[in-house]
Amino acid sequence: MDLKNKNIIGILIYFTSFVISFGVFAIIKRVELIPIINNLILGFNFLFFIGLQIFSFYKLTRIELNRYIKVILLIFLIICACISSFFIFLASVFSAKDDRSLIYDGEKYYVLNVGWLDPNYEIYKKNLITMNKLDNGKLGDVLCDLNKIENKETREILKFLIYGRNGISIKNTEENFNYQSESIKHKNFSNNFQII
Any stretches that span the bilayer, and where are they (predicted)? Predict the structure, then answer.
């Protein structure tokens, strides 16, 4: 292979790295993969992009050009690669999924926070390596007995999604009722003690 073809390969590798990386993000956006597979693909995609960039730089250093032009070209490409790597890293972080899961009646479900600033939870049912999103309006039919869920935080999230703020109000009302009942019992006990 002559030097000209090697130069073309170096340029193709440089631009191919961008196409592959953004192609992976497009697939991740369309296909709901389970968190561990999703996060592994994002991690390998980032490392693969860095590897292709380094390999393309090695190939491009062998281009027969004026020394100063070659240096300027490489500096420009390195700056572009650093900026692109930063944005790809940010995109990978925001595309990553937290692995909050639960088992209900033998089926595995994921509770994913898809919000950036404020929490916004969605429930997905595992289907091999992909997931199916559940309609929040039908969560009560699927997860009808929340007492089966051991994790307290996950149970509270599901209660909010199913019952809305009413679920929290009901809980607070029950806690206030229990507190008032205990107070009345304590007061009656004190009165009886004083009478004696």
Answer: 7-28, 40-60, 72-94
Residue 42 pLDDT greater than 90, yes or no = yes
Instruction: Give the structural domain span for 186.
Output: 168-196
Residues 73 and 122 in one domain: no
DSSP letter assigned to residue 33: B
Q: Does residue 106 sit in the same domain as residue 30? A: no
Runs of H (alpha helix) within 61-103: 67-95
Query: What type of residue sits at position 23?
Result: G
Instruction: Return the number of other C-beta atoms located less than 10 Å from residue 97's C-beta.
Output: 21
What is residue 14's predicted lDDT score, i.e. its pLDDT?
Answer: 82
pLDDT in the model for residue 145: 82
**Which among 42, 62, 95 is the end of a domain?**
95
Angstrom distances, CA of residue 116 to CA of 93, 107, 110, 160:
11, 28, 18, 19
